[in-house]
From TrEMBL:
The lineage of its organism: Bacteria, Bacillati, Chloroflexota, Anaerolineae, Anaerolineales. Keywords: ATP-binding, Metal-binding, Nucleotide-binding, Transferase, Zinc. Zn(2+) 1 binds at C4, C7, C23, H26. This is Uncharacterized protein. SUPFAM superfamilies: Adenine nucleotide alpha hydrolases-like. One of its GO terms (cellular component) is cytosolic tRNA wobble base thiouridylase complex. It comes from Levilinea saccharolytica.
């Protein structure tokens, strides 16, 4: 039997990459402490800042919200209802889980209901405007980004926290490295500084493996949506994750090394412009309709998407 390194009790989670096994109680304690360490290490936010937590109803975002609340940070949750009806009402189901989570802990959850607010669901917007495979995801990315910025500004949150874990970050890194997208590599950071019209964006779970955030959620009785969004099927991100998992099996710790040595190399100036994460590209102007910063002239991409004048891709 594997034993907990702290108390010698029965281990619940084994983390080969850290050469560490912990029992239920000590694993949860470790997870909370490590999150706080990451928040400090990358100077994500301070006690007096209000944090908007983007909540999808999945294990990562609910685990993140749970930990931030336990650590005593002031948080507001944001659920963006995308109107995805496939997979037995995916959006309704994940909203219900997010609401149950918030209610049980007395936390405040804001909901942006995309179909009610803009008259169309993500799949409907995609069918109208986008071409190509995974078209829902390209539309979804624009809408989520807009909605998160909008909610952060409206609710007075200077910080937006998302539940991205190490598997997510390593998959993105792998993709950006394959194409050597230096711009994207420069912007891939645990913290993206605030700029006019944009909150600071932080990823406090970026050093945890996906199985660790799942373990935290399960061991803490958090009910979350198990299924991936039906539109994620066959995505590059899932393919990359599967590849990296194979690598991890052969050589435990390789995912963590891949990501952390990248951050270290960048901090040492490997990509010329150096340590601090570049902020959002400087906006040239503000959208005349929604007021968010935009790099294009006239209406921003989101507003063109919603009013029907934007052909995507
Ligand atoms: Fe949106 Fe695509 Fe993610 Fe589904 S898989 S939530 S459609 S980006
Ligand atoms: Zn223990
Ligand atoms: Zn706009």
């Amino acid at each position: 039997m594997m034993r907990c390194k702290k108390c010698g009790g029965k281990a619940a989670v084994q983390m080969k990459q850290h050469n560490l096994a912990l029992c239920r109680e000590h694993f949860s304690e470790w997870f909370v402490e490590q999150t706080e360490r990451t928040i400090h290490k990358y100077r994500m936010f301070k006690r007096d800042e209000r944090v908007l937590v983007a909540v999808s109803g999945g294990k990562d975002s609910l685990a993140l919200w749970d930990v931030l609340a336990k650590l005593g940070y002031e948080t507001v949750g944001l659920y963006i209802h995308l109107g995805i009806e496939e997979a037995e009402g995916y959006s309704d189901h994940s909203l219900a889980l997010a609401q149950a989570f918030a209610a049980a802990r007395g936390l405040r959850l804001e909901v942006t209901h995309v179909p009610e607010r803009y008259g169309e669901s993500i799949p409907q917007m995609a069918a109208r405007t986008a071409r190509g495979r995974h078209r829902a995801c390209s539309v979804c990315g624009v809408v989520k980004r807009h909605s998160m910025n909008e909610a952060a500004m409206r609710l007075g949150c200077g910080v937006l926290a998302t539940g991205h874990n190490l598997d997510d970050e390593a998959a993105v890194l792998f993709n950006n490295t394959l194409s050597w997208s230096v711009d994207m590599l420069l912007r891939q950071n645990p913290v993206l500084p605030e700029s006019p019209g944009f909150p600071r964006k932080v990823k406090p779970l970026c050093r945890f493996y996906e199985r660790e955030s799942a373990a935290y959620a399960i061991l803490n009785g958090i009910e979350y949506v198990y299924e991936e969004c039906p539109h994620a099927v066959g995505s590059t991100s899932l393919v990359n994750k599967a590849l990296l998992n194979q690598l991890e099996q052969q050589s435990p710790g390789s995912k963590l090394r891949f990501y952390s040595t990248f951050l270290k190399a960048k901090a040492q100036g490997a990509f010329a412009s150096g340590a601090e994460g570049n902020a959002e590209p400087p906006p040239l102007q503000f959208c005349p309709s929604c007021g968010q910063p935009t790099t294009t002239a006239g209406l921003c991409l989101f507003c063109r998407l919603v009013d029907g004048s934007a052909p995507q891709e």
